Amino acid sequence: MAVIHISEDEAARDLAGVMARVYAGEEVIIENGTLAVAMVPMPVPPRRSIADCIALLPEGSTATIDEDFAKDVEAAIEAHREPLNPPAWD
After folding, report:
1. Which element (helix H / strand E) includes 79?
2. pLDDT band per the 50, 70, 90 thresholds, residue 56
3. What is the residue-wise DSSP string for 17-68?
4. Would you state the pLDDT for residue 86?
5. 20 lies in some domain
6. Cα–Cα distance between 16 and 28 in angstroms, integer?
7. Which single residue of 26, 46, 81, 88 could bond 2 by disulfide (Cβ 3.0 to 4.6 Å)?
8. What is the CATH number of the domain that holds 18?
9. Which domain holds residue 23?
């Protein structure tokens, strides 16, 4: 994630530009001289509802969400508790 440092004056002059950068995934730090006075973080991406996910299933899918669904998800998570070791270039 890119972090952009801008002055208060620049933020006031170009709020639309600041917001475009935020929506593009950048975090903006607004500064007065060398003092950071505000941070505009990247927005949290919207999450899909279960109904939206079901609507994305291909026609004829046999996928179901039954009373054991939560247990199945927990079991899958527990089966993969190894530490995340991403490559150095990530």
Report:
1. none
2. confident
3. HHHHHHHTT-EEEEEETTEEEEEEPPPPPP---HHHHHHTSPTT------TT
4. 67
5. yes
6. 13
7. 26
8. 3.40.1620
9. 3-40
Evaluate whether residue 75 is within a structural domain: no
Nearest to 31 by CA among 10, 57, 52, 13: 10
Mean per-residue pLDDT, 61-87: 79
Q: What is the pLDDT of residue 78?
A: 85
Q: Is residue 30 part of a domain?
A: yes
Task: Tell me which residue has tokens 């046999």.
Answer: 62
Residue 45 falls within a domain, yes or no?
no
Closest CA to 40 of 22, 25, 23, 13: 22
- CB count in 10 Å sphere of residue 8: 14
The 10 Å Cβ neighbour count of residue 27 is 15
**What residues pair up with 42 in beta bridges, in sequence order?**
none
Number of domains in the chain: 1
Tokens 């950071």 locate to 36
